[in-house]
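Q: Could you write out the predicted structure for this multi-component system? I'm mainly interested in how the pieces pack against one another.
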Amino acid sequence: DIQITQSPSSLSASVGDRVTMTCRASQGFSEALAWYQVKPGKAPKLVVFAGSRLEDGVPSRFTGSASGTEFTLTINSLQPEDFATYYCQQYYTSPYSFGQGTKLEIK
Amino acid sequence: QGHLVQSGSEVKKPGASVKVSCKTSGFTFASYSISWVRQAPGQGLEWMGWVSGYNSVTTPTQGLQGRVSMTTDTSTSTAYMQLTDLRSDDTAIYYCARRTFLGYLDSWGQGTLVTVSS
């Protein structure tokens, strides 16, 4: 099974800041990784797929990148609606494991 | 984009079973699979598996094999997830999501809270 290690587990930032979170996979695979935004009481939302492709309707301040077994989600110029928990997920092979999540909080 | 609407919250006793429904619209059901993901209180997302909208073939996670059943009703474009022999650590929000051909989940239901308590 592919293990995904996501860091940091929490992040405190202000509106307008730039933040980065990372997922590291236990083995190499293609760019079959997605990022989801989860807010309490709401349906999770796809942000990035294929490592770096933005889902339709997601603001361009979100950027996904991949290098070997490391995947990064960067949010530029944080907006109030961006504060949420973000999860990465590999969909290269079953079981489609998730990272542990990064909770992005307002400083 | 698809639209997925799940059934309401459930409270069950240990050892009981629960069946959660996920009614879909806005896309051709047979062209996608439906995945199930759960989130226990204070925990992260856990992938449970998926069921094909085309032929109902399932791919459940090994940890739940034998207790989880994922089915579909193509006449109503609805997917179902049944979990048997419930334990307290099955208490979670259960989500259904549309699985694209490549494997990522592009539309999600609103979640169904299942509480297992004696």
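A: Regarding packing and overall arrangement: Strands of chain A lie at 4-7, 10-13, 19-25, 33-38, 45-49, 53-54, 62-67, 70-75, 85-90, 102-106.
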